Amino acid sequence: MSRNVMIVDDDASIRKLVRAGLTQYGYHVQAAESGAACLDLLQSGFRGVILMDIQMPDLGGWATIRSILDRQFLEGNIICMLTGMNDPGSDSEGLETYVTDYIVKPFGIGELVHRVEQATAFLEN
Amino acid sequence: MTSPASAPTSVRNAIASLTAGPSHLVLIGSSTGGPRVLNEIMALLPPLPAAVLVVQHMPRFINPSLVRTLASNCRMPVCLAQDQQPLEDGHVYLAPSDLHCRLVHNCHVTLVDGPRINFVKPSIDVTMQSIRRPAPGFRVMGIILTGMGKDGAAGLRHVKAMGGFTIAQSEATCAVYGMPREAVLTGCVDHQLDPPQIAHRIIQSLLA
After folding, report:
1. CB–CB of B92/B76 below 8 Å?
2. So what's the pLDDT on residue B1?
3. Looking at this predicted complex, what is its ipTM?
4. Separation between Cα atoms, residue A84 and residue A54, nearest integer Å
């Protein structure tokens, strides 16, 4: 069973929280501090659930998703936004097609695990 | 030449299906956060005297797994819609990625390529705007679930104009309230409901 999760967030406290929270539920969590680091992990073969922040310096969440598509890294991955923005605005321009779920900070670990379990199920089913 | 009466059962069923079409139609448009909500709604639905057509924005590689996931939670058969497929009561059809899905005479599906509408393909608007004014007694329901952007708003307005019944998912239960909000802003939404209430309203409308 694939239980790989990647947290992509420039906020170290969020990366630490997600890693600690999901690890205790048996997930293998890799952390990327930027969109570029996310692409590096995908290039290295990561497949699983990607929890993606929207607002990051340099390469933001939407730009990272566009790069994932351009580099054909999407297949085998489920992308969920993990963001402080209640309203993602209108910048997605169709990229929402590739975002399976949207989790707003602050979040409880129980809710996060529930969402990740459901996202993982799409990779398993 | 084989007459219809002497044709094999499968052929007669296909002819009957093409001629009759579904008794009613339920059209559901959904995007980010939608798979979870679809699961929740489908799990609550009994076999319906209607065809259910779902347009979910999603990457192509998810198509088969979403069909399997919904099928495992639903008491109706679930399949990916195919070009020229007649719609049948008690079946759930999922529009495949990367093609627009139109209805012809409210009774069968046609899949067409073309530009993205509202940046997406399939577009919920394209599907809902292909609805024709139904015959008396034929009910059409248009439902917009969680998602970003505005796809589905114009479609829902069209469903309403064709005499249909319209629902938007409640803000509190949406992962993203973008699409339902845009639908509500058209002034053509009859009800804003939580997912269990949406299922209940579908049942009430079709089975009461």
Report:
1. yes
2. 41
3. 0.90
4. 8
What is the value of pTM for the model shown?
0.91
Which two three-digit tokens encode residue A73?
């890294």
Task: Look at A76 and B65 and tell me if their CB atoms are within 8 Å.
Answer: no
Name every residue in B having a CB less than 8 A away from some CB of A: 31-33, 35-36, 39, 57-59, 61-62, 65-66, 68-69, 72, 97, 116, 118-120, 147-149, 175-178
Q: For chain B of 208 residues, list the mean pLDDT of each consecutive stretch of 10.
A: 52 53 96 95 97 97 95 96 97 98 96 96 98 95 96 98 98 95 97 98 93
Question: If residue B191 lies in a helix (H) or strand (E), which one and from where to where?
Answer: strand B191-193
Helix axes B34-44, A109-124, angle to 10 degrees: 80
List C-alpha distances in Å: B52 to A36, A81, A123, B55, B93. 42, 29, 25, 10, 6
Residue B172, classified by CB atoms within 10 Å of its CB into exposed (0-12), middle (13-18) or buried (19+), is exposed
